[in-house]
Amino acid sequence: MEINNQQIETMVTEFVTKSKELGLKVTPQRTAIYKELAKTDQHPSTEMIYKNIKDYFPNISLTTVYRTLETFEKHGLISVVNQLYNAARYDANLTPHHHIVCVECKKIEDIYDSSVNYTKIDNKIQDYEVVGYSVLFNGICSSCSDK
């Protein structure tokens, strides 16, 4: 799914509004980190985001980007796709969807398939209250399988 400028601006506006509702400071750095995440469907790592905004904010540290992403995730502004190979990958797209990861090149893609949704679950499993779930498929992408 390609993300156009209008969609990005809408996502950023909603991010700012929700951040304010949650009592979070909306700084230029936080907005830039979110926008960097919102403009791609590539599920970047913290390091990727840091590398891309370092030119605009030369004094920002990698630690700041890590902490900011953790704050966003904690408040439900973004999601962590997975802990893939010791590197969390992030997603600003909060619409219901799942992911598939290429085990060769580590590319992550979105899957929009309602047949995968697990809607017959009770809101309790054992001693847990279910607050959400995610499905992660592993495979080999066509680029890697052609090699």
Question: What can you tell me about this protein's structure?
Answer:
The structure is a single chain. This protein is an alpha+beta fold and 147 residues long. The protein folds into two domains: 5-91, Winged helix-like DNA-binding domain superfamily/Winged helix DNA-binding domain (Arc Repressor Mutant, subunit A); 98-145, Dna Ligase, domain 1 (2-Layer Sandwich). The chain contains five helices and seven strands; from the N terminus they run ααααβββββββα. The chain has a three-stranded mixed β-sheet with strand order 4-3-7, with no helix packed on it. Strands 1-2 form a two-stranded antiparallel sheet. Strands 5-6 form a two-stranded antiparallel ribbon. The longest helix has 17 residues, at 5-21. The model has no long low-confidence stretch (mean pLDDT 87).
**Alpha-carbon distance between the two ends:** 25 Å
Element-by-element helix/strand order: HHHHEEEEEEEH
Class per helix and strand makeup: alpha+beta
Within the CATH hierarchy, at the fold level, what is the topology of the largest domain? Arc Repressor Mutant, subunit A
C-alpha-based Rg, rounded: 17 Å
Q: In total, how many beta strands?
A: 7
Instruction: Please identify, by name, the CATH architecture of the largest domain.
Output: Orthogonal Bundle
Quickly count the domains.
2
CATH class of the largest domain: Mainly Alpha
- 3D shape: globular
Output mean pLDDT. 87
- By DSSP (H or I, 4+ residues per run), the number of helices equals 5
What's the story with the biggest beta sheet?
3 strands, mixed
What's the CATH H-level superfamily name of the largest domain? Winged helix-like DNA-binding domain superfamily/Winged helix DNA-binding domain
